[in-house]
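Case study B.
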Amino acid sequence: MASQEALKVMVLHGPNLNLLGAREPNIYGNKSLEDINHLLMEHAGQLGVSLQIFQSNSEGALIDYLHQARQWAHGVMINPGGYGHTSIAIRDAIAAISLPVVEVHLSNVYAREEFRRHSMIAPVCQGSICGFGWYSYVLALYGLVNHLRGKEG
Ligand code: DQA
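Model:
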């Protein structure tokens, strides 16, 4: 990443994540999406990173946000929800934008139903974090920022 420009990260939440807190809390926890966004903003503030955060239930809108990220962000975090297991179009968008993207899931998708064990997007992502509940997002933010600041390895 060039110079001292502040890092910018786009956070994308996919389908049904607007219902967090109410949706299967035994799997996804009690925090609402607003709670998680608030926590992310706090961590981003400590890291000196700007965030843009969007949620959509629509595959096309998520693809539009990924395209938009090219104009603004240095990297992207995405919880693709169910689309992560199925969407060739979201995978293609991630591959197309040439930005590091981190896949995030609250639950451990590998410990659940068989159909959740395949990620369509993981091969085109910088990395994937799952299984830590809301803290998966925080881990993804730190991992992405560390990567963007060139400190990994
Ligand atoms: C999820 C896992 C997906 O399998 C599921 O479809 C979701 C949420 C997670 O954050 O654990 O919607 O992405």
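The chain has six helices and five strands. The remaining cases will be described in the next quarterly update.
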